[in-house]
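fyi for ur records
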Amino acid sequence: MDYAKLLENAYQRSPEPPDWLQPGRPVYVPNRGLGYVVDLLGRRILVAFGNEHCDLGDWQHALQQNQLLPPESAPQQSQLKVGNIGAPTFRALATHVQQQGILRDIQRSSARAATTDPIPSDLPESLKGALEQLGIDALYCHQAQALTAMRAGKDVCLATETSSGKTLAFALPLFEACLRDRDTSVLALWPLKALANDQLAKLHELNQLLPPEERLTVGIITGDTPIEERKPLLARRPHLLGMSPEVLQRALYATGRRDGGEWRDFLRRLRAVVADESHAYLATFGAGMKNLFRRLYRCVDAAGGSSERLQWAFASATIGNPSELAGTLAGRDPQRIQTLTQSGAAQAERTLLTLEATGDPNATAAELIAQCLQHGLTGIAFANNRSAIKRLLRRAQNRVARAGLDPSQIAIFHGSLKAERRRAILQQVATGRVGFVLGTQALELGIDISEFDVALLRGFPGSVMAAKQRIGRVGRSRAGLAIYIPSTHSPLDAYYRRFPEQLIAGNPEPIAIDSDHPATLGKHLLAGAAEAGIPSQQLAHYFGSAASTIAGGLLDQGELRLNQRGYYYAKSYLHKTISLRGNEQTRVAAFDTETGEELETLDAETARRELHPGAIYTTQNTGGGIANYRCRYLDEDAGKAELEPAPSDRSTNPDLTFEIDLQRTLKSASLTGMTLTLGWGRITESVTGYEVLQYRPEKQAPSPLGRVTFDAPYVTEFEAPILRLELDDSCIESCQKVAQSLREQLQREETEIPKAYEVLESASAGRIGLHSLGHQLLLGLPLAVLCNHHDLDFVTESPETSGLSGAFFDTIAGGSGSSEALFAYFGQVAARARELVEACDCEAGCPQCLVLPRCPEQNKALLKQLGGALLATLAPTDNRGAY
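which gave:
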């Protein structure tokens, strides 16, 4: 302990704070919101934001920098008062957050009555009877319009809101077609297994209500369907067959096999394809699905069917370009597609509360979950990834237990859970055993789950489209409440905190996909050639105009061949290596070594990060409690990880390193002081060890206990596009001048160097500037280009010349088009990034303008001002793409 420093602090006279800056008084902190003063410790000030207590440092400095303001400086809340909220329990929740000083805005959408049309008199009597048994005596107007359009031979795109009856809208015309012609088959695709099982159960119910002699053969094949059950199902000549995309793409290989007769029969009879939740088909997944449908067309024709007469039924959330997306996926003229966006379903009143941003959204969400359960409200909390909901589960169960309630009322739901566990959770929700579900995108999509009272959005989900889907989980048949909990760690969270009306009334984003990306198209072209052969004169007909160049390259490499009949063919079986979603196909199952229970299944890349030996893995056991495990052994070849119980207060973080090998240059461009090189290369990610952390109740953050280094790292290697950015001497000198200016400013103030500026003494100014620029461009990218922010990463590299270089790289093998998009729109991205940085009120960098949640370099060597200096040289005034 430095006793001299303590004496110096004690003898130092602190100035008197203003009258409004006193313990217990409310204050406003930009980017954090309203809080209240906990205490003044000399020059230091402690402020609470909800449940989070923060040390804001020197209050005088904060006042000078306008980082600490009187409460009247806070933006005015919506004119809608809490007292106007109709439901008493919702009003009580709103009052609770208002009293905490964290309620920023209230939005409300009014209830709407249903608009219906009579059931057509010429519908088959058996179908009318089934509807009557379901209690349906009229159709919503969009259901009737879909029936009319499909009867007329049109493709249909249903882009109405969540829970508007889209399943029945496409089920009626397709059941009718099968009943009128028993030699008809229909293929239905769902992006998630849980969704497929859920939606097919509805179709089974409708089918069972038909007279026994008229019932159709309805079946499903997903990854959960045992291999021995698949062929007998096809042998029964199903009329309606549900599949996951991954199963379909492997099934297509049977088209040309001698033992594929049942599958060819199904394709020959195929009259319609249902693509449910088609808004999930974006970025890499969308490109994969487009090419899968190209292969499906070829296989249908090869089996003796007609791809031209196939009808499509797309069911989508409300997106910005539903007709265009449907036309792109199906390869059809949008004029052939009838798009229905106006729902006839009734809607109850919805209220949206937007809270002030917090640095600990889990604490706020846990408190609200406890409040909901105390008021007898059911709910769903959305987070943006599996790790986030597991962290929230721990906080929520602890808070609920302190309130004297049963913590097992809270359950997590995500795609890695075993099918039996997912079904059990849905059943427990239906019976009331589980009152609050923590979910990811798996519950954002249209799984039919009991209606909830409250939906919590822990952070912005990445698009207005997804936000609308999540809010749409409440307010169906009864009034619903949604609560948006923005985080200070996200610039997008901050934007929608300022403009919450966009979450309800904003226009959803359009979806664009690059299905002709060479790596993607090349794999699918080879797969199509192996399945049924491709007539050389019809290559462009099936695979588009870009296919000829790709086919030429594959012929040169000997991967593709041309036979004497003029058919392209391939002998390689690539289907196991093609990932429609961009992740690894190899799966690893995690087992409890004491019970032998299979807990979850992960892809191999995720397993290397989260199931390496020594890793602490958190999940929820079947009793609803939190279970911590330590990985004893990981065997990738066997697809197995062995786990044993671990202390509940421990966690681990993997240590990652990246190596970038740019093997081929595709394009390059020179900017002021910088060079961009777009190319192709190998990315090597190594898990070299891990850090062990311990949670302690008295501390908000976990404490480090030590590090472990592996003798041999766990390695993931893949090839993808790379965008290298190299600084020349002028840019490095510019960074050095800014750094020197900052040092001189700190010396003039004669204060201790703030922690944020210590980096100036530990890293070169050029490297700090380059690393900061890379982060700021990544933060600006989704503001200029619709993309998945996980599809691109950035690392600094060792100098190869006199300058410094860093590399952006696609995180998906073969690429997703993200590096190319950044290259093509570099000027626009730089302009958006500069606006973002300059609009941020922080001093040296924060999660809104600099810090990334997943930085390969652990967010070291960063400083806002140095990255901003480089952005100032990049951002063009005309906001055009650079090239």
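The chain has six domains: 3-73, 82-110+347-505, 125-340, 518-540+550-577, 587-648, 657-874. thats all i got for now
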